Amino acid sequence: MKKVIIIGAGAAGMMAAYAAASGANSVQIIEKNEKCGKKIYITGKGRCNLTNNCDISDFFEHVISNPRFLYSSVYGFTIEQTMELFSKELGLRIKTERGNRVFPESDKSSDVINSLVKGLKEKGVKIILNKRAEKLIIKDNVIKGVACGNEIYEADAVIIAAGGLSYPSTGSDGDGFRLAESAGHSITETYPSLVPLIVRETWVKELMGLSLRNVSVSFYKDNKKIYSDFGEMLFTHFGVSGPLILTASSYLAKQIRSENLTMYIDCKPALSEEELDMRLLRDFGEKKNCHFGNSLGKLLPRKLIPVVVKLSGIKEDKPVNSVSAAERKKLMRLIKNLPLTITGTGNYNEAVITKGGVSVKEINPSTMESKLIKNLYFAGEIIDVDALTGGYNLQIAWSTGYMAGKSISE
Ligand SMILES: Cc1cc2nc3c(=O)[nH]c(=O)nc-3n(C[C@H](O)[C@H](O)[C@H](O)COP(=O)(O)OP(=O)(O)OC[C@H]3O[C@@H](n4cnc5c(N)ncnc54)[C@H](O)[C@@H]3O)c2cc1C
């Protein structure tokens, strides 16, 4: 019987413990919080989007960093197996929603946590709360245990599932990286990802809370388009957020750190420049006795109009019928290319995920075992892998956690 210590009772740690305890092992989880799964609690806006019921090839398309590293673990513990484990073994009723997103039927993330904790207790896993793993005990490149202050927990195998840096208030505050580094592991550069973007233009404040649907955004570096996408975005106090922007932050995190990018919002992507110009002409025709400032109500959301009017340089009280063709063209181009200068991303307090982490080159992808220290394993967000929103990141935690636990129990 092996003594297994798991650091962290998040998604990866609990799944790893469940798999390790399925063999004849004595499994203990050390968690520094007062309860398990503090981050799971806030996932999916409190509903926990626990996986994505998509084809496996589709899954890997949503993994942004090091998808190949995940082949063995995700094929070894698939989305289907994850859903089956939750619904059949752990008794959690689940449902699949739009975009293949899987949630508990109750819409309560606490039910996901409770089902896992109950499953762990049934398997005899001991959960030690309010205890911080401070040091790894390693002799001759073999893990021997974990130290929490003066207390030593001896172990035949240790899994570090301590998360990354995002939402540090949930417990993932970089401890895992420090422990990994102490064992000789390299940590690739880390970035807040799936995070709002900060812009230079102060007018965004006036639009705070405004959500734009069916818009497209394009990012430019040195006048060259480097990224574009279509969907829904949101203005915040300091910049932009929403699904479209969070996804962009994942692709562009590295560039945004090193230079300012320009982002253009196409508020009317369904209309060509000519079509939008015709549309403006028509709207102006219907409002010919109005001021220019009152002529855009049919075309743009109410909150956006004063900003567009100001940026257009056309006087708000100018009669619509005296707006020149050149002014109208400039306005049309502005609506198709509303410019913003991206100066940075939000910090880890607002980032759904950490990009970067323990280098995948130093972990065996089939077992999650360290290539440097025998019987030391990694699982979850601590590893340099990350995906887009939609349940993919939790699936990474479930699959890597399961593989680490299973490898030990075998
Ligand atoms: C707001 C938000 C919403 C999200 N929504 C979704 C979603 O709906 N779907 C999805 O797929 N993903 C979502 N994610 C991402 C997902 O939550 C993470 O990918 C996942 O929780 C990572 O699991 P983990 O177990 O690796 O790390 P964590 O969940 O961070 O767990 C790490 C645990 O280790 C503990 N720990 C750390 N250091 C120590 C130490 N020294 N000693 C003892 N314990 C320690 C921590 O307290 C913590 O409990 C969301 C993230 C956020 C922030």
Query: What is the strand tally?
Result: 21
CATH hierarchy class name of the largest domain: Alpha Beta
Distance between the first and last residues' Cα: 11 Å
Average pLDDT number: 97
Strand content: 15-25%
Residue share in helix: 25-40%
Strand order of the largest sheet: 13-16-15-14-17-18
Q: Which sheet architecture does the biggest sheet show?
A: 6 strands, antiparallel, barrel
User: What is the assembly state of the chains in this entry?
Assistant: single chain
Q: Name the CATH superfamily classification of the largest domain.
A: FAD/NAD(P)-binding domain
- How does CATH name the architecture of the largest domain? 3-Layer(bba) Sandwich
Shape: elongated
Overall structural domain count: 2
What would you report as the Rg, rounded to the nearest angstrom?
Answer: 25 Å
Question: What does this protein look like?
Answer:
By secondary structure, the chain is α+β, with helices and mostly antiparallel strands. It folds into 2 domains: 3-189 and 356-409, FAD/NAD(P)-binding domain (3-Layer(bba) Sandwich), CATH 3.50.50; 196-346, no CATH class. Helices cover 31% and strands 24% of the residues. The protein has helices at residues 11-21, 38-42, 56-61, 71-76, 79-89, 109-122, 175-182, 243-258, 273-286, 305-312, 325-336, 392-409, and strands at 3-7, 26-30, 51-52, 63-65, 94-96, 101-104, 126-128, 135-139, 142-148, 151-154, 157-160, 191-193, 197-199, 211-221, 224-235, 239-241, 261-266, 338-345, 353-355, 376-378, 386-387. A hairpin with a 2-residue loop joins strand 9 and strand 10 (151-154). Helix 1 (11-21) packs parallel to helix 12 and helix 9 (273-286) packs across helix 11. It is elongated, with a radius of gyration of 25 Å. The chain starts with a strand and ends with a helix. The structure holds flavin-adenine dinucleotide. Flavin-adenine dinucleotide binds next to helix 1, helix 2, helix 7 and helix 12.
